[in-house]
What does this fold into?
Amino acid sequence: MKNTILLFGEDAGFVPGTSPKTKKLRPFTLEVIITILVLLWIYTAGDKLSDYQSYRHSMYLQVFNEKILHILIPSLPFAELVAAGLLMSAGHLGYGLWFSALLMALFTGYVALVYFGYFPERPCSCAGLFEKMSWGGHLLMNSALLIITLVGLLLNSKRKEASVTAWR
It folds into this structure.
């Protein structure tokens, strides 16, 4: 039983008898993930909004229909800011993580389609640092961010399970 992981209770997810330092690792990791995502969403939305005409032009170089672009262009920075706001609101953290996972899955899916040749290669319409990446590098970065977001979802669900069980 030494390596048993508890699923419920005050020590949820931790090996019994571990140090208080270890018990703080998961909340700390979740905070780091939230910080990374908030910075990502604020940075990408801010970059798009600070040079809106350039962002708009680069979006028109993508494979999307013009009617879709009329909705997509203003919606992306707005969605990124909503994700950041949800992540910063303690009461809506779960929604923020789910919304971040959805956005990252969509962005990663699009990059994968371009990378694997389903769509013709186009100039990236991404923000700042990301626009300089190759499509392969972009796919790796987006995949890593998606995995980080999914880990955040898992850690948040464990945190919620522990607090609900503590109430009982």
About this structure: The chain has a mean pLDDT of 83.
